[in-house]
Amino acid sequence: MICARCHRALVRDPIYLSGSAYGPRCATAITGSKPRRGRITTALRAADGRQHELFAEETS
Ligand SMILES: [Zn+2]
Hints:
The chain is low in regular secondary structure. Helix content is about 15%, strand content about 10%. It has a two-stranded antiparallel sheet with strand order 1-2.
């Protein structure tokens, strides 16, 4: 994998911005802030009591 901005070989996992792979430094230079790399957002996983349990076992 090669960085789309500086064309250097990326050793670690690249950061994808609009379909192109960038290194951490270039991604930071483009976005202005350090992008997050695949961090799980727990805010979206708030419990909703009205929903049914997704993985409830069916006893039949
Ligand atoms: Zn780069």
